[in-house]
Amino acid sequence: MLDILIYPVSGVMKLWHLLLHNVVGLDDSLAWFVSLFGLVITIRAIIAPFTWQMLKSGRAAAHVRPHRAAIRKEFEGKFDEASIREMQKRQSELNKEHGINPIAGCMPGLIQMPFILGLYWALLRMARPEGGLENPIINSIGFLSPEEVQSFLEGRINNVPLPAYVSMPTEQLEYLGTTQAEVLSFVLPLFIAAAIITAINMAMSMYRAFQTNDYASSVSNGMIKFMLVLSILAPIFPLSLGLTGPFPTAIALYWVSNNLWTLFQTIIMMIILERKYPLSEEFKVHHLEQRDKYRAKQKEKRSFLWTRRKNRALMLLTPWKASSLHAENVELTSARTKKINEQKQAQKEISTKRRETQREMNRAAMERLKKRRAEVKAKKKGLIDASPHDPSPEEKEEN
Questions:
Q1: pLDDT tens across 246-282, in order?
Q2: Which intervals carry biased composition (Basic and acidic residues) (predicted)?
Q3: What is the structure's pLDDT at 399?
Q4: Lowest mean pLDDT among 71-85, 127-141, 213-227
């Protein structure tokens, strides 16, 4: 499966290597080194328009959020067919008016992921050829010929082989003419730089997320919490995998260059976005209202949990009040649970009725479609029956 992904990556690397080595005249090792940056430039240049469209679409979605909330509030509690059709029509018109494309946010990741997987698999196969580095059996990898794969294996940057990695066995490092200390001294600053740049990129992503987060959506709030955890773990990822896993020097170089590109591209696009499509005052007011409601709800939840924990602690310190404190906890929990269940039940009833109405609408649409197809089929059959080759009933009667 991953072999298919190797071909576009190997093709781009081969073109850059041929250009840099045969046309520009760079040294073979340096040409392979620079071709990694050329690969980053090529991939990110392809993705850049989709990334910009994603940011632009996200900003447009933020601008229409107050209008979308007003539509939902207007049709809140309504589940008849006319109301559903009108709500869908107005939401569709809103998306069309502001040029919102829900698929735009997925495109950069969908395009970039095959290239990342293909690059990792191609470099890993070049760094770990069949038969091992001591007795390698050099085969073609994607569009790269055996001679080009051998040239890559012999490539060095700062006297460190491109296929070498920190956790590589000692005998393989000796075969490549290097040591673990030399490899570590070269790649450790790269992985540290990758971790730092990753942390900066995550911080910028968090800033964008908080700037336009939809506090009325539980999914959006959950994504914010997930991103907070990810922002802590993501910088550790390059260090841990780079120092313990089979990550060649070439991967470290690609990692740093790709993160640098992401950083500068994000800064430039955010500046352009803020100047061309600044957040409207209407959105800012709506965003603050939703944020205050969310914080008030979270404060109420924390107060409930704190009261319950405090009562549990007092039950240990004042055993003679344990029964009354326990009864208070039970009462608080029951009241809160009842309130939440009532809200969920009301929402569930409306959602269920809307789904039933939507199913009926879909059935009616399918029936209309079947009827139309039957009419078209009957019309075609009537035309065939009335063709000159077959006499009509009137002609038969005359004859």
A1: 788 888 888 888 889 989 998 999 999 999 989 889 8
A2: 340-368, 387-399
A3: 42
A4: 127-141
**Per-domain boundaries in the chain:** 2-281, 304-341
Res 217 pLDDT > 90: no
Average of pLDDT values for 203-211?
87
pLDDT value at residue 396: 47
Q: How many Å apart are CA 49 and CA 266, to the nearest integer?
A: 12
Rounded distance between C-alpha atoms, residue 311 and residue 288, angstroms = 34
Sorted by sequence, the CB contacts under 8 Å of residue 332 that are 6+ apart come out as 304, 307, 308
Query: How far is 311 from 327, CA to CA, in rounded Å?
Result: 10
Q: Cite the DSSP H helix spans in 128-217.
A: 146-153, 170-176, 180-212
The Cα-based distances of 257 to 16, 102, 227, 386 in angstroms read: 16, 30, 23, 72
Q: What is the CA radius of gyration of the chain?
A: 32
DSSP per-residue codes, 140-163: -BTTB-HHHHHHHHT-EETTEETT
User: Residue holding tokens 């979308």?
Assistant: 68
Cβ neighbours of residue 125 under 8 Å, at least 6 residues apart?
6, 141
Maximum C-alpha span of the chain: 113
CB-count exposure of residue 144 (10 Å: 0-12, 13-18, 19+): buried
d(CA 92, CA 89): 5
pLDDT at 296: 92
